[in-house]
From TrEMBL:
Listed Pfam families: HxlR (PF01638)
Keyword Transcription regulation: yes
One example GO MF annotation: DNA binding
Keyword DNA damage: no
Keywords: DNA-binding, Transcription, Transcription regulation
Species per Swiss-Prot/TrEMBL record: Paenibacillus sophorae
Coiled-coil segments: none
Organism domain of life: Bacteria
Sequence ranges assigned to domain HTH hxlR-type in this UniProt record: 3-104
Name this protein carries in UniProt: Helix-turn-helix transcriptional regulator
Length: 104
């Protein structure tokens, strides 16, 4: 069954639907510095649980902000990177970092 098309009152509301929450902006910020593997995210964000990390990455992948690449090797290797759509968020994410008082 098709989901109904969501409507938003503002573009900010639509943006927050995709990148809002506690972890998504951090995941996206770290990806602006290049591809990351699961363990790298866990090192960069030690407070995130594996379950939440997986959920957030799946949602970002579903929304076409992040691309997942699986390599057919042993042990399995999976990398995440920003899509072209995801890269359009770089300036916003770095502005948020500077606004928070940290050099980026």
């Amino acid at each position: 069954m098709l989901e109904p098309i969501k409507t938003y009152n503002t573009a900010v509301e639509a943006t927050l639907e995709v990148i809002g929450g506690k972890w998504k902006p951090l995941i996206l910020f770290h990806l602006t510095f290049g591809k990351k593997r699961n363990g790298e995210f866990r090192s960069l964000m030690p407070a995130i649980t594996q379950k939440v990390l997986t959920q957030q990455l799946r949602e970002l992948e579903r929304d076409e902000v992040v691309e997942r690449t699986t390599y057919n090797v042993v042990p399995p290797k999976v990398e995440y990177e920003l899509t072209e759509y995801g890269w359009s968020l770089k300036e916003i994410l770095h502005l948020m970092c500077r606004w928070g008082g940290y050099p980026c």
